């Protein structure tokens, strides 16, 4: 079974430390699609990262991440837009399939989630022409409602796709099973996203029972309760055949040698995804 | 300001230990509405609990809890129905305003959340005639999606109200701000529930940033990011003027003397709710 359909998000192997080490570990397994985080790229420098990507025939299923648009004042929102433009530049230089957006939650001290959502919409509307000119699609990643306050005030596919519809071309969603598996409307919304060509990425991991930590206890595929094959089938039925990107934030897995993590990922990808 | 609109869910003061101690602590503050858990009632015995309630003019905004309908086999589902009937009996004996249902998540080993939802619907349909005969409304409490796997596979108001519509009279929802505050459709669904007289309870606490524990780090009203006054206004606009029931699962608050907890609850109720 070819590993063309598999991508490694570098959060999964962040213990590798540097961009080069993580890329080499993927290549050693025969994995040629990745999704780095900005700090990994900036650690080695964008030019060098782009060279490594290009010379090794590596594809980027996404670049992580832009977003965090809400801020307590205009100055803060302005800085967020500027920073997002740099993220777009990075994504473009590495020819990433999309820039993944963790859109941001409530500004410090605020209880106005509707206001925060408006700031996200305004910020994306301002960023979009720049991203389109650079040829970088913007992928809203609806995060699990657990993160509504501090990371992303867009928490369902429906809500995110409604925003994509308002913003128009050049926007879409990153569908992470961890964030949306529980949603009673997930099937119809995945189908809707497919009809409108709004699926930009498909992230996988698993939901552990119990989940002991809200941030860093995501599971390896197969260790939890998500029907991953069923989910993939739903995604493909909607017309998306891009890679399954493994993104596992986990105290447990991030403490293991990255070769062990990747060997396990490949084995699970071949059996349960 | 009268405390008629305030109810204390006994999870908030469970360190009190016994039904009598918790009731006395509430009465001492002038609070005459409560929502006990089954173990508190069973600890003192249903007859004695009903006597304490009746002799002190206490009202129950709810009885916690029934539910947990899904099970791996027919025998397990049958036992769940029987146990729910005992919960209905208790609620009836204490004249509770409703039986709160934490409907249950995935049966052990299952990845079929749609199947679990069907088990909930089937279980409630079977329980309903018994509950109606006893005069006890069944209140589905949609739980935060964090609990979809292990506690409740109904996680939004819309999903829960759709089920109530299918089941008909004698069913409704318990709206807990902690579970639904993030929902982009919360306003329209609260209004819908009001139109159909489906609001049976209104629970309050707060969402802390950060929330360090997924189960036991709920906040005291005012310490988090939920717009409680705005939420109450939305609920009253929908036609529900029943008590605000304080339900705080918290390592922090459950470690304090219950008089201190209740004094704080009263102060916050008067200022931020």
TrEMBL record, chains A, B:
It comes from the Bacteria. GO terms for molecular function: isomerase activity. Residues 31-259 form the Xylose isomerase-like TIM barrel domain. It holds the Pfam family AP_endonuc_2. Keywords: Isomerase. InterPro entries: IolE/XylAMocC-like, Xyl_isomerase-like_sf, Xyl_isomerase-like_TIM-brl. PANTHER family: HYDROXYPYRUVATE ISOMERASE, XYLOSE ISOMERASE. This is Sugar phosphate isomerase/epimerase. It comes from Agrobacterium larrymoorei.
């Amino acid at each position: 079974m070819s590993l063309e359909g598999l991508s490694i998000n570098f959060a999964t192997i962040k213990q590798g430390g540097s961009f080069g080490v993580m890329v080499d570990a993927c290549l050693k397994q025969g994995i040629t699609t990745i999704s780095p985080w900005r700090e990994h790229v900036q650690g080695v420098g964008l030019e060098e990262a782009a060279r490594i990507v290009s010379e090794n025939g590596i594809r980027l299923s996404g670049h992580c991440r832009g977003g965090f648009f809400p801020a307590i004042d205009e100055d803060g929102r302005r800085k967020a837009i500027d920073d997002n433009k740099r993220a777009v530049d990075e994504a473009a230089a590495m020819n990433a399939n999309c820039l993944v957006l963790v859109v941001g939650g409530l500004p410090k001290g605020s209880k106005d989630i509707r206001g925060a959502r408006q700031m996200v919409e305004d910020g994306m509307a301002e960023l979009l022409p720049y991203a389109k000119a650079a040829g970088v699609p913007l992928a809203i990643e609806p995060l699990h409602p657990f993160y509504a306050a501090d990371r992303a005030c867009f928490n369902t596919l429906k809500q995110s796709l409604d925003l994509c519809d308002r913003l128009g071309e050049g926007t879409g969603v990153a569908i992470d099973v961890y964030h949306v598996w529980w949603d009673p409307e997930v099937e119809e919304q995945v189908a809707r996203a497919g009809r409108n060509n709004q699926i930009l990425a498909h992230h996988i991991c698993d939901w552990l029972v119990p989940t002991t930590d809200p941030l860093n206890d995501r599971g390896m595929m197969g260790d939890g309760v998500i029907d991953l094959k069923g989910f993939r089938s739903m995604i493909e039925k909607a017309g998306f055949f891009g890679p399954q990107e493994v993104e596992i934030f986990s105290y447990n897995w991030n403490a293991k040698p990255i070769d062990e993590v990747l060997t396990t990922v490949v084995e699970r990808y071949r059996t349960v995804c």
